[in-house]
Design goal:
Order of helices and strands: EHEEHEHHEEEHEEEEHEEHH
CATH architecture of the largest domain: 2-Layer Sandwich
CATH topology of the largest domain: D-amino Acid Aminotransferase, Chain A, domain 1
Radius of gyration: 20 Å
Number of helices: 8
CATH superfamily of the largest domain: ATP-grasp fold, B domain
Distance between the termini: 21 Å
Strand content: 15-25%
Shape: globular
Number of domains: 3
Length: 318
């Protein structure tokens, strides 16, 4: 919806994910413009065109052939902010989302239970830490997104073999984590809490069935079967299931709210799981939050209408 002078610009890389938001903005008459960061350019002199910018770029862009989208989005947001623009989920927030290692350290400094992690750019360097792991462990890229390239491994030798067989596995940023593996009840799944403007929007349980792609978007994980996604399951498994979780413990919400505040998330999702020995472990901070209409409907609202409510309030502030 291009205009001569939009009030809002939405930075994005995945147009299918944005359709519900754009439709809600159009219904409400918000003057907005979509800025596709996959093929874009900007200057160091042009003044910001809008009162407010909203970042919806995704770390997983490289999996869709859009490797250059992430660095452009980050550079553009930094430029906009230096020129005085207000960007929701801006450069600092996006930088946090791009680094699982920084997320792990943030949670540790907040004294929140989170998996032990080692970040590395050469598998040989892991030998010095091998004795500190109880195998199996989880291998994941520092710049993640939608569970891409995550797998369970049994030894440093297996990690070395993975990168020896396929050097392209290092893409996009040549940095990986080896992380503590945390078992959980598959019938309970993991918990994801969606926050908007610092407050809980809704909570849901996610039954993974062994998958790592837990993207809440119906485009990737629809309610009625397989979705259209560039991240196939490593092994055949039933589709991921999403369930409303109104009984989420107050303590979990309070902990997640601390993370949201520390990370300065405007919109985002926080994930945790519960282990058989009673730990509640937080492990993921998502700034690009794909909301799930079917879950929000069980709470009695349209999540994208709530996002537009928030954006309209922020436009008034701007």
């Amino acid at each position: 919806m291009p205009t001569d002078s939009p009030d809002l610009v939405v930075l994005h890389e995945h147009p299918e994910w944005q359709k519900p938001l754009f439709a809600a903005l159009q219904r409400r008459g918000v003057r907005f413009e979509a800025f596709d960061v996959t093929k874009a350019a900007f200057t160091n002199t042009d003044a910001p065109r809008a009162k407010l910018y909203f970042n919806q770029a995704s770390p997983s862009a490289y999996l869709r052939g859009n490797t250059r989208a992430v660095p452009l989005a980050l550079a553009y947001m930094r430029t906009l902010q230096q020129l005085g623009a207000r960007v929701l989920n801006g450069a600092d927030v996006f930088s946090l989302e791009l680094s699982k290692s920084v997320q792990a350290t943030l949670l540790q400094t907040l004294k929140i239970d989170t998996p032990f992690s080692v970040t590395f750019n050469d598998p040989a360097a892991l030998h010095a830490y091998a004795s500190r792991f109880k195998w199996p462990a989880v291998l994941k890229p520092d710049q993640g997104g939608s569970g891409a390239r995550i797998q369970v491994v049994d030894s440093v030798a297996q990690v070395e073999d993975i990168f020896r067989r396929d050097p392209s596995y290092w893409e996009p940023d040549n940095l990986f984590l080896l992380q503590e593996y945390l078992p959980h009840d598959p019938e309970q799944g993991i918990v994801r809490l969606e926050f908007l403007g610092g407050e809980l929007l809704y909570a849901m349980r996610v039954k993974t069935h062994g998958r790592f792609n837990l993207c809440p978007s119906p485009v990737c994980n629809p309610d009625d079967g397989e979705g259209i996604c560039e991240i196939p399951a490593a092994t055949p498994a039933p589709p991921v299931e999403f369930f409303a979780y109104p009984e989420v413990p107050d303590e979990a919400v309070a902990t997640a709210r601390r993370i949201v505040k520390a990370a300065r998330l405007d919109v985002g999702g926080i994930e945790y799981l519960e282990t058989p020995d009673g730990r509640r472990v937080f492990y993921d901070v998502n700034a690009n939050s794909n909301l799930r209409p079917s879950v929000a409907a069980e709470f009695g609202f349209d999540p994208f209408e709530r996002v537009v409510d928030f954006l309209v309030r922020e436009l008034t502030r701007s």
